[in-house]
Structure formats: structure tokens, C-alpha cells
Design a protein that fits this description.
18 strands, six-stranded mixed beta sheet, 14 helices, TATA-Binding Protein, 3 domains, Alpha-D-Glucose-1,6-Bisphosphate, Chain A, domain 3, single chain, alpha/beta
Amino acid sequence: MSRKLFGTDGVRGLANSEPMTAETCLKLAQATALQFRRGTHRHTAVIGKDTRLSGYLLEPALTAGFIGMGMDVILLGPVPTPAVAMLTSSLRADVGVMISASHNPYEDNGIKLFGPDGYKLSDATEAAIEARMQQPFATDLAGSAELGRAQRLDDAVGRYIEHAKRSFPRGLRLDGLRIVVDCANGAAYKVAPRIFWELGADVIPFAVAPDGKNINRDCGALHTQNLQAEVIVRQAHLGVALDGDADRLIVVDERGQVVDGDQLLALIARAAQRDGWLKGQVVATVMSNLGLERYLQAQGLQLARTAVGDRYVVEKMRAEGWNVGGEASGHLVLSDHGTTGDGIVAALQVLAELVQQGKPASEVCRMFEPVPQILKNIRYAPGQQPLEQEAVKQVIAAVEQELTGQGRVLVRKSGTEPLIRVMVEADEAERHADRILAVIHEVLKEKAA
């Protein structure tokens, strides 16, 4: 079965337009409830969300869908995505739902689904849910006496705070560290500052006043300029940037310089190797920098690459029994502490290294010299298939041949937007990327004519 509704990270789109409408979310909940019925016990769905205005539209629709299928619903309110994953398992629920479009602007929203074990669903399970959505539900609806109930979990935030703190090494504290915590006006605006404060840090909260429309606006992991300035002005030791649902982390050092997920992955992997808790290989996606791979090899470690998406990183880790993985974008997965990317837990590991090494973040977090990398996008219209065109295949092959042993080329469709993403990693990376983009542009132009 193929998937059309689901992308690389759940369902996503413009709020109140297909597929992010109340009607489709209702059907999605009904189909998901059918998919996870497993026995005669009272079934439960857990629902969390970020701070987008459209959460008020989608949360009731999903709730109604589950209740109508006889499922009880536990509403968490605004919490990070990893909190939903953790609580789905902790509460022994049958399915978990996070309403969020992650790093996207407030106009978008999305649905991420978790199984009873707290892990994101496989491609096959998502395809099965899509297939169920095409079928009528009339005969599967609960009777009047079997409808589900909804209730709020008042201490959801507190449970996640304690879970995250348990990932920080015992005996360590953050006393004396001044940290600017950028919560992207998103799901972690309450929990993140409190976690670092409870561990002893001098916390400067940033972007913690959500109004439904300012999530990720000039803040968060994708927009660090204001955080960089704040770190310097406040003379902070570190800046922590989360995204809208707090499942990714980008760091800003004391000089105001950005440290991406590849550097952080190298730092955590090296610490895990040193302290004896690293299991097997380190996992990253095809987008991670070649410099990361070379650094790990120099440390006697191996890097396994997956398709883009933290879900695929996690699937590889689970299949092999490995426990450290992530993406350059800042999704860092530490399976000893969680089932999905967790920006706060990852930040705690970075801070532990700052405490233990007693050095500035600019020294602690710079693990390798990255190979020059350029990523450019080109938009295509529905129905166009530029990557299937012979001219495009030929130019990609030519650039790959030219860079043999010197760099990498990756050209792919985005899993969330109608974009072709062209990544080149090499000296003069931009020249090589522009060469490929020029051919794609010409093909699209011809097809549109």
C-alpha cells in the first residue's frame, strides 16, 4: 500500500484546508482508532498540541473521532512532541497524537501519530490507516452507551519535566551557567525554562509568550538571529533553540555562533563512547555532513545513514539496538531516554559536557570542520516529475562523477512540500548545485509551456 496523506513526518498542510480540516481529522481519528483496536479493554488515545491557533480547531475534531469509536481521550494541552510519545507509553494508551507542524509557520498544522510503545508509526501502518479512511465507518461507530470520554491530564507538564531531568547525569548541576532558552513561542514555553532552572541554571527565557500566531516567527531552531544577539547581550554561556514542538535542538555558543545538529551529534556520541554507554554505530541521515562521518571514523566509530526524517533514524536504531542518532537539523534521538527526537533532553547532554569539561561552549561544541555544503530548493507544480527526466538524471550523474571521492550529491523530493531539494557537499558546492538546478529549471519550464 502507498501513502498519499502522510509525508515524512505525519500529515501536514495549511490549517483549515485539506488535509488539515476538521472533517479529515475526524476521519483520521476514526481510522486510527480502528487500526489500534486490540482486544476488549477500554481503549485510550492521548492528544497533545503546540500553541498554534488552529489547534483549537483540530483538537476537538480528533477528540470527537476517537470518542465516536468508543475510545477515551486524555488531553495534555501544549506539551513537546517527546512528552506525547513518553506519556502514550507511560499511560498505557493505545495511540498518541501530537498536533503540530513543527518548525513551520502558524498557518500550517500537522498530525503526528505514535503507537502504544511511544514510537512513530511505520510507513506500512500509516498506509493501512489511509486505506481505512476510504471505507465507511457507520458499522464501526460505538453505540450510545459505549462512547468514549475526554479528560485533561493536569500534571502532564510535571510528568515530562521529571522524565527529562532523569536524563541528566546524577551528581551534576547547572549552577553558575547562564542559559538563554528560546522556546519558539511553541510547545515547550512552560517546560523548558523550568527544567533548566530546577537543575540550577540561571535561565533567561526567550520567545515564551505564544499568542497562537507567533510560533517560530523570528525565533526557534530555524531562526536563531535574535537568540544569537541575546546570548551576546546577556553574556550567556549558551543559547538553546528549540522548534515549535521541541523535538529538535540548535545551540548558540557564547560567541553567538550557531552549532548545528551534526556537531551536537558528534559531541554526544564521543561522550557516550568515553563514558561507556554507546551501543553500536551512530545513526544519521543522508543530509548529515561528510565532516561528521570523517570525525567519527577518526574516533573509531561508524556512521550509518538513513533516509531523511528522524522516524527513519529511529527505525534503524531500533532494528540494530543502537542508542545514539540524529539529523543535522537538530533532531537528536537518545533511545536510552526516549523514543523520538527530544530537544530538551539533547540540550541537557550538551550542558553536562560543559559542566564536566569546564570549557566554553565554543570549544566544547566544535567537534569537526564541516565540508562545505549547499542546499537549494526549487518548487514544482502538481503532476510534474522533474527527477524522472533524462536531462536531470544526466546532469546529476555528471556532477557525481566529477565529485567522486571529493564530495556528495543528493537530489530528492521534499516529503512535506512540493520542492526538489538539491544538496551538494564539496569545494565549490554552490557552483555544482546551480548546475543541477539550472537543468531542473529548464525541464520544468518546458513541461509548463
